[in-house]
Design brief:
TIM Barrel, 13 strands, eight-stranded parallel β-sheet, alpha/beta, globular, 304 residues, single chain, three-stranded antiparallel β-sheet
């Protein structure tokens, strides 16, 4: 899920593009199947079966986050990250790997290097990046990641890794090497920070190459989503659920210990449905979190 950047309406438009992205998952599955699965990772820096949450608001009462053992936050979170640290809690900072927002202070500098490909039509402030460009690689490794580390985050939540393989599939001649470059960049982060927990959102086409590098994967909108036309939360059709599971299967069979987290969207007041969503995701072997589409409030799992 692309970060809101305080633009809730634009985040909702993302759900439109997500529909197209999910439709392309089947095509990208072929790419995933062709890539060799690396050797088994020695240790996982993240574990499944924990309570987790994603919060993209600017501030929140720390008491609301106390039930969670894994928390993903926006880098612009105003409260000191250190104030949320406690034993047994892992804090991850959001980092977009395939797109860059024009509100960022480095935007004009990156734009001048021709490292930006073009606007995301569903997210006007977000620009797709050329993951092969040295300027992007340098910015990520030398500025964006160190900034998150300096803020006190324990690790990273890597988003928009679906963008490079999608571009390469759309125009193989023009964007050849985008996927390889994205994988190389994630591996470079791991090399620079060998003990840092890394979680990726989707990125299914790249997962086989990264399974020995990252510590967990998030299946966003696995069984529910948000329809911006009807402004309602909806169940995902069975075929889409099957695509998610099919794309996750090779990695999970190769490394059954790979933690899979799920992120679904629903109305918090509908307690009965929230309970059923948590139960269904756990049946699938996932560590679930269900929230509002804007991710601007902390939604606790209903008590059983």
């Amino acid at each position: 899920m692309r970060k809101t950047f305080n633009a809730g309406a634009r985040r909702v438009r993302l759900l439109v593009s997500r529909r197209g992205a999910v439709a392309r998952l089947g095509a990208l599955a072929g790419l995933s199947m062709l890539v060799g699965i690396p050797a088994l990772a020695q240790t996982r820096r993240l574990r499944g079966g924990v309570r987790w949450a994603i919060f993209y608001g600017m501030d929140v009462d720390p008491a609301e986050l106390e039930p969670f053992e894994l928390i993903v936050l926006d880098p612009n979170f105003t409260r000191p990250v250190s104030s949320l640290k406690r034993p047994g809690v892992t804090l991850l900072g959001y980092l977009s790997m395939g797109e860059f927002n024009r509100t960022k202070p480095q935007f004009s500098r990156l734009q001048s290097t021709a490292a930006l490909i073009g606007q995301n039509p569903h997210w006007p402030d977000s620009y797709t990046v050329d993951t092969r460009h040295e300027a992007w690689r340098s910015l990520v490794l030398n500025e964006l990641v160190p900034d998150l580390v300096d803020q006190g985050f324990d690790g990273l939540f890597l988003d928009t890794l679906d963008s490079p393989p999608h571009l390469e599939q759309t125009n193989p001649e023009l964007y050849r090497g985008m996927s390889e470059a994205a994988v190389s960049l994630v591996c470079a982060i791991r090399d620079k920070y060998p003990r840092m927990p890394l979680m990726i959102n989707r990125g299914y086409a790249l997962l086989p190459q990264l399974i020995d590098t990252v510590d967990a994967v998030v299946a966003e909108s696995m069984i529910t989503s948000y329809d911006p036309e009807t402004k309602a939360y909806v169940r995902v059709v069975d075929d889409t659920v099957a695509r998610h599971l099919a794309l996750l299967r090779p990695a999970r069979e190769a490394q059954p210990e790979l933690p899979v987290f799920s992120l679904d969207y629903w109305e918090p007041a509908d307690i009965g449905t929230l309970r059923s969503l948590y139960a269904r995701e756990r049946e699938l072997g996932h560590s679930p979190y269900v929230a509002t589409v804007l991710l601007d409030q902390v939604v606790a799992e209903p008590l059983r």
